[in-house]
Amino acid sequence: MAEEYFKISGGYVYDPIHGVDGQARDLWIRDGKIVEPPTDPQVRPTRHLNAAGLVVMPGGIDMHCHIAGPKVNTARKMRPEEKRRDPPVYRTANTRSGTLGSVPSTFATGYKYVGLGYTTAFDAAVPPLSARHAHEEFDDTPCIDKGFYVLMGNNHYIMRSIQRNEPQQLKAFVAWLLGAAKGYAPKLVNPGGVEMWKNRASGNVHGVDDLVDYYNVTPRQIIREVARAADELRLPHSVHIHSNNLGMPGNWQTTLETMKALEGHRGHMTHIQFHSYGGGDADESTFNSKVQPLADYVNEHSNITVDVGQVLFGETTSMTGDGPLGYYLSNVYKSKWFSGDTEMESGCGIAPIKYRNKSLVHAWQWAIGLEWYLLVNDPWRVAMSTDHPNGGSFLAYPQIIRLLMDATYRKDVLKTVNPRVGRQSVLQDLNREYTLSEIAIITRAGPAKMLGLTHKGHLGPGADADITIYTPHENKETMFELPKFVIKSGRLVVEDGEIRDPHLGKTLYIAPDYDRDVETDIADWFEQYYSIRFRNYPVSDDYIHSSEQIACP
Ligand SMILES: [Zn+2]
Description:
18 helices
C-alpha cells in the first residue's frame, strides 16, 4: 500500500534545536510525525502545502498557564460580567460554542490556543485530589496536547516524611502521587505558607526558614527535598516552584534563597516577575526592580530555568494555589474573593484584578517582566508566559513578542507608563532585540527542553508534526497573532484563523517507578485522614480518552 505523506515545501524554517535559522526547507509528515524525506524520488505526497515565503516553526508550548481544574472552573463562575461583555465563540460545523473573558471555557481555550499557533499547554496547579476534574476538562479542551503539574508543597505526607527524615519515603510518595494523579511534574506553591494559612487567621510563612506549624519543617527543606526527589526519579521536568512571598515588596531575597535552597538540583522558578521586587514597608514609593541580581544568579547557575509571568495592562482574574495571596489581592483590589482548601493537600484563592499603566507598582511589574527576558543571557533558560490569566491572557503573547523584537516600540510604550518607572527601569538603556530564532526558543524549543519533551519543540524526524506557519510582517504582533496555518499531529487544524478540524489532542502524563512497599504506609495514611479511600484515589488508565505517557529516562 502506498504510504500517505504530507509535504510542506519551501518555507523559511526556524528550528533552533537543529540549528536551522530561517533557511528554506521542505518538511515531510507521516502518521502525525515528521519523517525523513522518502528516498524514492517517485514518491509523491498525498497532501501538499506550499509554504514558500512563509515562516515555519514548531507549534508553541505554554509551560505555565491555568486552564483546567476546580479553581479555573470556579473563576469562570465568578466572572459572569465578563461573559456578558465579551462576544462568545459561536458553534460552527467544526467547533462547539464557548465563552471568553479572562477565563475562557474549555472549548474556547483549545480553539484560541491553537488559533494562536500553540499546540501544547500545561496547567500549573492541580490538587491531586481534584485530578479527575482537571482530566475531564482536558477531555473537553480540543486541538491541543495538555498536561498538569501536581500541587505538593503543602502536602501533609510530604511534610511528615521530611519531619521524620525519610527521604526514600518522600521520593516514593512523590512518584506515586504523580502517577496516581496522572500529572506531569511536581509543583510547589508557597511551600509551607498555604498550610499556615489553613491553620490560623492570616497565617503564612514569610521566608524560606520559617517553621510550619505542627510539622516543624521549613520551606527550604520542602524545596530541597522535592527537588532532590525529582532529580533522583529522573523526571522529565524539574520541580516547578512558585516561591514564598509572591507579590510582596522586598521578596527578591526570598527568591534568591529559594534558588540557593535547590543546592544544585534542577529547579524551575515560575512567573519569576512576581518574585523580583525590591522595596519594603508600607511605603509604595520604595517599590523597585531587583531583576539584575536575580538574573545574574540565574546566568551563573545552569540548574535553574525560569518562565516570566509577564504582566499586561488591563483587567483579568487572579487564581492561585497560594491561598493567603488570594486574600491579599482581594484586599488590595477590594474585589470579590474565593478561598478554598483541599484536605491535606493544598488551597486556592481567586480574585478579579486590574493592572493600570499609571500605577507605580503595576508599571514596575510590566517593566520587570521585560527586564527578565532581556537580562537572562541564555534564551534556552527563559520561557514566555503570562501565568495566564494572572499576569494577562495567553492571547497577549504576540504583544510581548513585539516588545521583545522592537526596542523602539518598547521604549515608546515605556514612555506611556508611570514616569518614575520610565526613569528608573533599565529598560530605557536596553537595546537588545530578540531574533525570530530566539522567539522560537522562548516559545517552543526552550519549553520543550525544560519539560523533557524530546518529541516536541523541534522539526526533526520523530518529532510530533505540530507546526505553525506565519506570514512575515514588519509588525511582529501582527505576524504572530494570526498564523496562516496550524498543523497538529500532522492534521491541518487551523487555516486563516478558522478551525478546520476539531482534533482532540492528548493528555501528557508520567508514571515514574517507585518502591511499591510504600503503598502500605500511604494506604494507612488514607484510612486515617482522607475523605476518599486509597484504592479509589488513583486516576485509572481508562479515565482519560486520549493520552500519552512520557517516559522518565
Ligand atoms: Zn500560575
